[in-house]
Amino acid sequence: MRRITAAVLLVAAWGGAVRAQETPTEREAARGVIRKIAELEASLGVPDLVAKLTGPNAARDEVAARARQLMDTELLAMGDDITRHPEVGFVEERSVKILGDWLRAHDFDVQIGVASLKTAFVARWKGGRGSPNLGVIVEYDALRGTQGAFHGDQHSTQGPIGLAAAVAMAEYLGKSGQPGSVTVYGTPGEEMMPPNAKTDMHLAGIFRGADILLRSHSSTATTRPAAGFGTCCMNINGTKYTFYGAPAHQLTSWNGRNALTAVIELFNHIDGLRSNLRPETRIQGVIVEGGAAPNVVPDKTVADFYIRYPDAVYLEQVTEMVDNAARAAALATGTRVVIDHYGKARDGIAVSTLAEVGFAYMKKYGATGIAPEPGKPQGYEETGSVSSDIPGLGFSAKSSNAPNHTYEMEADALTAVGHAGFVTDAQAMASVLYDFATRPEYRTLVKKEFDGIKALFAEYQEALRATYVMPKVTVP
């Protein structure tokens, strides 16, 4: 579900302008919020923080080296194996068993099946000693494709990357006697909803007590987010439109009502709407049920859509327009439509105190394809409900020469470009975990930034609501 996100314009603490909000309208509407976030960022001294944390440190280097060793000797092979045996969301039983068995062998208690999700898991390091509570999110689901499941987003090695960092850090805590706990969260079905696995796990209290959550994800460049509001793939409404008609023989089709015609009209109506939608809008859908036989008028069809926009406020208007397009299609064809808003993803929070440090570590450990400027703000995973409550970061060292969700990206997971990116992510993740665990002042700074940005979100939403004025349509 990568990679277009909502954003907030910031002026970085070191004086340079970084990536702006997704849309000109947002930039204008949120200028008051922009100013406040810029002031917060200036107070943090992020460049000095980066220099301090990434400087010489033998203990940290040992943790990073252990993460690399685990990747080189065991976990790259594990990722390759999962790549070759893809499983789509919520049926990733083989992958979960592999990950869980490895964690058990490295002193973790593993509970598989949490939050009513049979392939979700929680693995807690047995030697944990209270706070800080270090959390690592891992994913393992494959994409649904016309040729079968495939790892075109390289989730197959997200698990091994997280395991390497978690175990390297747990071993350090065990040897050093430092306080701290390590928990690995297995989150299924990232590419699917419903259910929205991370949201459901969050609502069930699975992430409760975590002080930080880190994850990794495939990327065609080494990137980091700017600080602010956002979500990985823009705000999303997952919606199904089910049309019901009446069957008849095709030779006497007037005796029926064609639900396939209705769903085709829905696609035509949406295409007709595009000129009236803001250009950042994304609406894509597929017909998942189109009828049973060519000689029978289809009496039931289903279309599944992801409706996306950089902010949730205008997304409400877009979704209403698509819903009305479905109603119009039903009215025009004498059918009926049932609308199911079955899932959503919303804004999260990105913080520079984690993003800039993580980015510096990725470069330190040999990342390629460096994107020099921060990207649009984004939560560290696709479900903003989690990243808007718990600070964290997604690591994105270049791991493919091909775009996301392609067969070529899956192939790259098995080659040098993929392996190099995966090892880089593991080392960088382990290093950030080390810094967060061993430096109380760093934890305080992360919390200050996170809480400060979060406190501005309601003001940001209200500014957008005042800006996205519905046009008035009158009859002269």
Q: Which descriptors apply to this entry?
A:
476 residues, alpha/beta, Aminopeptidase, Alpha-Beta Plaits, 6-stranded mixed beta sheet, 4-stranded antiparallel beta sheet, 17% strand
Could you give a short description of this structure?
The protein is 43% helix and 17% strand.
Fold and architecture overview:
By secondary structure, the chain is an alpha/beta fold. It has 2 domains: 57-231 and 349-451, Aminopeptidase, CATH 3.40.630.10; 235-345, 2-Layer Sandwich (Alpha-Beta Plaits), CATH 3.30.70.360. The protein is built from 15 helices and 12 strands. The protein has helices spanning 24-29, 31-44, 46-54, 58-84, 93-104, 158-176, 197-203, 259-273, 312-333, 352-364, 384-387, 407-412, 416-438, 440-455, 457-467; strands at residues 108-114, 117-125, 133-138, 181-186, 212-216, 228-230, 235-244, 282-289, 300-309, 336-345, 348-350, 392-395. Strands 1-2-4-3-5-12 form a 6-stranded mixed sheet, covered by helices on one side. Strand 3, helix 6 and strand 4 form a beta-alpha-beta unit. Helix 6 runs parallel beside helix 13. The protein is globular. The two termini are 46 Å apart.
